[in-house]
Amino acid sequence: MPYVCVDNLVKKYGELTAVDHISFTVERGEIFGLLGPNGAGKSTTLNVITTLTDFNKGEVVIDGMDIRKDKNRIKQLIGMVPQDIAIYNHLNAYENVKFFASLYGLRGSRLKKNVLEALEFVGLSDKMKEKPRKMSGGMRRRLNIACGIAHEPRLIVLDEPTVGVDTQSREHILNSIKLLRDRGATVIYTSHYMQEVEEICDRIAIIDKGKMIACGTEPELVSMVTDVKSIYVETRLPVGFDLEAFCKKIKLMPGVKGVKAEDYVIRVDISIGQNGTERIIQEFINNKLPLDNIKSEVPNLDTLFLTLTGRELR
User: Fold this and answer.
1) What is the CATH number of the domain that holds 249?
2) What digits encode the pLDDT tens for the residues 236-251?
3) How many domains does the chain have?
4) What is the CATH number of the domain that holds 15?
5) Assign residue 224 a region: left if phi > 0, alpha if psi is -120 to 50, beta otherwise?
6) How many Cβ atoms sit within 10 Å of the Cβ of residue 221?
7) Residue 309 clears pLDDT 70, i.e. is over it
8) pLDDT tens by residue, 57-104
9) CA-to-CA distance for 149 and 147, rounded, in angstroms?
């Protein structure tokens, strides 16, 4: 059974339908990406899942428990890392994490142990006495994460956790999220950075105007808009080489949709489901054509999102 089940979810604010009959599941131990432009209903959906907002219609089940009937038990399972940094500037790093962990009932030696482990996990063990106002933006983001995971939640919701951080902190945060997944946590992740989603998410849902547009793995989403990938081979043709005959031969290969030669580049369009790249390259080698450069191109998430929603994510 999936760890999170959202079925036919509807949330209205007066006449505005913020979430319009959305359904999806999150498997136990996966990183699930939730994408959508501002105003798409993404934050409202997260607020419902984290018990912060009630809803008008539908069903939400987490770890087999109904979110309305077992709200208090579900709260103990969830760690929320909000986009707006939720830490106290008058407390040092250790005190911040201790305060938030104590809200979940942690006390005594276990509380101390979990706080120290959370700070070590985000790379702030040497900053535990430091107050947030003296930290860099990346450190504050990492402290924000420590506050959300110190109680060892089984479901972790991260809303734009890398906004405004440096490259080093971003890599640290992404690696930490993957490690949380490897340790058994289930993660729901939102971001405006498509490269991050491509790097860490097992499956991705795209919502727009309150509706679910698409949901699946990246290859599954790509297959919704195209079944072709393009292979570009830069080469040099010897004098007298019959390029037309060569292209015709490539075009007859299994899965090849088209061949186009322009200047020194030959483009081969092939079905995504076909693993024919090696055969195509071998044909170049058989004809003694030098392989100066080879690249493969399929639609990325940016292109996919634009195609499905008609606008860019940001």
Assistant:
1) 3.30.70.1340
2) 999 889 999 999 999 9
3) 2
4) 3.40.50.300
5) alpha
6) 23
7) no
8) 999 999 999 999 999 999 999 999 988 888 999 999 999 999 999 999
9) 6
Distance from C-alpha of 76 to C-alpha of 107, rounded to nearest angstrom: 15
Q: Which domain holds residue 119?
A: 4-222
Whether 280 is covered by a domain: the verdict is yes
Tens-digit pLDDT profile for residues 102-116:
999 999 999 999 999
Residues 6+ away with beta carbon under 8 Å from 62: 3, 4, 5, 49, 74, 77, 78, 155
pTM value is 0.79
Strand 256-262 to 265-271 pairing: antiparallel
DSSP line for 115-169: HHHHHHHTT-GGGTTS-GGGS-HHHHHHHHHHHHHTT--SEEEEESTTTT--HHH
Same domain, 217 and 233: no
Closest C-alpha among 181, 179, 249 to residue 27: 181
